């Protein structure tokens, strides 16, 4: 049984006409009639009761019509899914981080992410704070890992990964060294 025969049968029943179904499927009326005759022969069942220039569905024809609609819709979904899979490239996650970052945490996080999501490609960029911000604004980066040197923008979701202590070193020769601890 061919998929086309099912489509032809659906078209005939839907249009209540062999002629209109033939036009809809861009074939001759005799070709569509032969396809349905061949289908009935293959199934060894009459699907249509032909009368003069019209027809009615047999019980088997009614059942076949309903099931054919379901099957052809499922086949079309399958076809679309196969086409999508064959043409779909992996999604790409573009990450940018501050170029003076020296730790291994980002590298390790990317490796872990790749293990969990092998179908997502990762592109990594490094730049200074302003360049990363501009690339994020223009949509060239999905995520940036940066230090905070400006107010956080409401346009983005902002997460603090960690707070690091900041120290100042003062030369023993400096006048600032004479200040009491905690005054600076």
Essential attributes:
184 residues, alpha/beta, Arc Repressor Mutant, subunit A, 2 domains, 5 strands, 15% strand
Would you summarize the structure shown here?
The protein is 46% helix and 15% strand. By secondary structure, the chain is an alpha/beta fold. The longest helix has 29 residues, at 59-87.
Model description:
- With 184 residues, this protein is α/β, with parallel strands linked by helices.
- The chain has 2 domains: 3-87, Arc Repressor Mutant, subunit A, CATH 1.10.10.10; 90-184, D-Maltodextrin-Binding Protein, domain 2 (3-Layer(aba) Sandwich).
- 46% of the residues lie in helices and 15% in strands.
- It has helices at residues 3-15, 18-24, 29-43, 59-87, 105-116, 129-137; strands at 48-51, 54-57, 91-98, 120-127, 143-145.
- Helix 1 (3-15) crosses helix 2 (18-24), helix 1 (3-15) crosses helix 3 (29-43) and helix 1 crosses helix 4.
- It is rod-shaped.
């Amino acid at each position: 049984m061919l998929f086309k025969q099912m489509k032809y049968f659906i078209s005939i029943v839907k249009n209540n006409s062999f002629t209109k179904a033939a036009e809809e499927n861009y074939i001759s009326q005799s070709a569509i009639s032969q396809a349905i005759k061949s289908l009935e022969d293959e199934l060894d069942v009459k699907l249509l009761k032909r009368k003069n220039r019209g027809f009615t569905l047999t019980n088997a024809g009614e059942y076949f019509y309903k099931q054919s609609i379901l099957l052809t819709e499922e086949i079309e979904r399958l076809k679309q899914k196969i086409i999508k899979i064959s043409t779909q490239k992996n999604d790409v996650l573009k990450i940018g981080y501050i170029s003076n970052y020296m730790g291994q945490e980002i590298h390790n996080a990317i490796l872990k992410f790749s293990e969990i999501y092998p179908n997502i490609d990762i592109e990594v960029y490094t730049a200074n704070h302003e360049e990363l911000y501009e690339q994020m604004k223009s949509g060239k980066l999905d995520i940036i890992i940066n230090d905070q040197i400006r107010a956080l923008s409401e346009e983005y979701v902002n997460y603090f990964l960690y707070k690091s202590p900041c120290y100042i070193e003062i030369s023993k020769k400096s006048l600032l060294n004479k200040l009491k601890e905690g005054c600076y």
